[in-house]
Amino acid sequence: MEPLPRLRILRPVSSRNYRYCIQVACAQIRFYCHGRPLTSLYVCAREEFAVTFPRRALCLSLLPGALVLGLLGAVPSPARADDSAPETDRAEAVRLWETGGPGVKEAAEAALVGGDDAVRTFLSQAADLSYSDDRVAASRLYNLGGPALRKAVRDALKSNAPDTVRAFLKDGWQAPLLQDQRVQVSQIINAGGPEVRKAGIAALGSGSPDKIREFLTTGQYDRRRQDERVQVAQLFDGAGANVGAAARIALDGSPADVHAFLQVGRYVARAHDQERATIARLDARAAKSGKDAAAAARAARAATTVKQARIHAAAAQKAAKAAGADVTEAKKVHDLAVRTDAGKLAARTNEAITRARDLKAQEDQRAARRQAAVREAENLRAEADELARQAAEPGTDPATIAPEGRAVALATAKTGRPRSRSAALAALSGSDTGIVAYLRTGRADADAQDDRADVGHLAETADSPDVRAAAAKALQGDGAAVSAFLATGQYEVVKQEMRLRVVRALTGAGPIEKEAIGKALDADTADALHQFLTTGQALARTQDERVRAAQLSAGPGPELRAAARVALDGPADLLHAFITTGQSQARRQDQLAATHAAQVRQLITHAAGIAAGARKNAAEAGRATGR
Prior knowledge:
about 625 residues; mainly alpha; elongated
């Protein structure tokens, strides 16, 4: 199987950000931009952008096979696609570096920056390293797979035959994977609602692996959202006041709000309805006892004998005690409900905070990797420039400069653009003299070709007509003109457009974002405007949202405080979701809970008043016995 292509994204320069999506086919990954297929997208500013897949389907049975193997590491291919044999040992080592698994790649890197003996040693060990990588890849499939795939992995590994393991990794996993997927679809059908069952049955009936995979990766979730909305709507029939109100709040929110209501919210609302019903019954009992006490008091006053008066007085006293007991029980029920709600909310909040912190850690790691990549690129360029200067000096010994030159070429092969990568791989495949030639001119020539290709891409695909026209004009110039356009010219062309976008950002901006906007407008340079739109705006907005969330974390409602705490510990997108929509949902939940609490307190107060009246009537009945 050929390795998956390195994916790169062209930074947009138009007034509208590009919307990128990924289509995963059986043997390749394609990028689409605004519905148009793009064979490759290159980074203009030497930045790398991560591609993130939904976590909800992170298991082998939900992942397309080619993508799974791409995640695990490419399976080494025995020969080049054109079946042409490499001309040198170094060329063979480069091929293995390109196609090999983690172990092969690591060993190849060490060999390629070393001498000829290191390369020959690596080649003599490559078959064993490749087999070891194959076994590791198969083991990872075992950990991710279902019963059928795990059995197939065990059978392949037990063979202890490299060809058998490699054949399994090539396509032997497909049939057991499909079997596991069909079982998983059946399980989802059995547990799903009407729409999920309908879609699952259709996927199984089609017999198509693609249809089954589509159902597992996206279809089941789309249909489940439909089923869940129907399920919430059905709860209105015979629902209590709290369940009905909470259901309306959920239906007004996002699919995640609907799901959260079904998982947690409806049970909280149902408990509130039960609490209110219990206290209402106790209130009714207290009211009856109050009436009994009043009637007994009247009978005691009307009694003609002391004995009769005492009997009625005792009845009044009993009724008064019963009313008081009902009030006491009602208070206990309410206090227990309050403590239970608080405990459950605390547990949910702590769990959500843990998840949010995990997501924040992942975000921080991605940011650190991006920063490290930028620093590495800067260091690589500086090192390459210094080596180019040394290589250009008369009398330079190729054997002296070649080891460092190979390290630069290898680093470029990992992160460079297409033509730079090709030139680096060609240099790595050659002799010390070839490395020196690469350092002197080859690297710079390839970089210039990549610049020209990037500008050509802008001339064809940029949203802005002005950018397309300016890019086409730049292509008519020399390499310096092309590089200058790529570095600054493309932004100068849309400077006025970027300025208008910055001004429009003032609407709804917070204090920190407004300050950043002011600085960008005061600088009034294409670079300042571009930096604000690409990075500064998001950073400033996040800071504003963090301040607002901190204020809300001390707010009056427990749900609002809890949601704010979770948002503060989470990544930027979670914080933004809380500020834009989450806080309003939390406020409505707090309002619903406050309304419920007020109604319960009103019932308890009413019952307490009745109990007080019953005690007064009992006292009057007692005085009537002293005639």
